[in-house]
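Researcher: Sequence recovery benchmark, item below. Answer with residues only.
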């Protein structure tokens, strides 16, 4: 598979953290919204891996071994792709 088609596949699988499935690992691709600085201060930075632990009005995620509760509005600004297991 060429590099271009892999990149296209990643863009097709891009979703917000609030849309992501609970219990799965994701890689943060970019932050998009007015709270980007606040999200980065919480540890949601591009290229990090995050696991969504629970959904609801507030989401619980694991980033760098730390559990964080994030509002659904903030989670909408975190764009992720699934981490494919080997």
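Model:
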């Amino acid at each position: 598979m060429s590099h271009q088609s892999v990149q296209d596949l990643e863009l097709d699988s891009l979703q917000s953290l609030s849309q992501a499935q609970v219990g799965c690992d994701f890689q943060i691709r970019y932050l998009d919204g007015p709270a980007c600085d606040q999200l980065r201060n919480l540890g949601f930075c591009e290229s990090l891996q995050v696991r969504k632990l629970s959904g609801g009005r507030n989401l619980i995620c694991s980033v760098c071994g730390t559990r964080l509760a994030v509002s659904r509005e903030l989670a909408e600004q975190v764009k992720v792709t699934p981490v494919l297991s080997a």
